[in-house]
Amino acid sequence: MAQHVIVTEYNPLWPQLYRQEAEQIRAILRDNCVAIHHIGSTAVVGLCAKPVIDIMPVVVSLARVDAQKKAFEAIGYEVLGEFGIAGRRYLRKGGDERTHQLHIFEQGADEQIERHLALRDYLRAHPQDAAVYGRLKRQLAQQFPWDIESYCDGKDDLVRKLEQAALQWRRNKEQSAL
To answer: Could you give the CA distance from residue 148 to residue 30 in angstroms, rounded to a whole number?
Structure first.
């Protein structure tokens, strides 16, 4: 069955759903977990989104994550390996109507980690850009309600532009703090 692409208004319960899931993930990862972040559109107050909680654990060792496959499956995750991004472990929960996605990176994967955090923080600080992104997501969800690949492809150019702006914004903030 194809994944139904639904974009909804921001749900104020998303941060709570993230925290509940993060507790379970921390319990599995234990001392392998360096940090855990709520990323993606559900982490940006006011931004419409697919109702899927994106979580990015940062770990000491991906090999130790791989050894926890059965523990993740026990709480409902499908373990999909790198799934197109080298150095990542991707897990999803909820099947075609997924509810959560994990993007696990090893500490030292700074480019990937920074990209996700910079975009989240940039959209939080720039509601006008978040609104543009939200309008595009709504349009694409209406245009491709059963075609997640076309939905994602349609967002790709804007997401890349937003990521570049976010990375530059973050660098400028860091430089001005010196």
So the answer is: 33
- Per the DSSP assignment, residues forming a β-bridge with 89 are 104
Output the CA–CA distances (angstroms, integers) from residue 156 to 16, 107, 127, 151, 175, in the order listed.
Answer: 28, 26, 19, 9, 28
Q: Is the pTM of this model over 0.85?
A: yes
DSSP-assigned letters across all residues of 54-80: EEEEEES-HHHHHTTHHHHHHTTEEE-
Q: How far apart are CA 155 and CA 53, in angstroms?
A: 18
Tokens standing for residue 75: 């709480």
pLDDT digits (tens, 9 = 90+) for 94-141: 987 899 999 999 999 999 999 999 999 999 999 999 999 999 999 999
Q: Which tokens hold the place of 87?
A: 């150095």
* Residue 37 identity: H
Percent above pLDDT 90 for the chain:
92
- CA within 13 Å, CB half, 149: 1
| DSSP run (H or E) holding 21 | helix 14-29
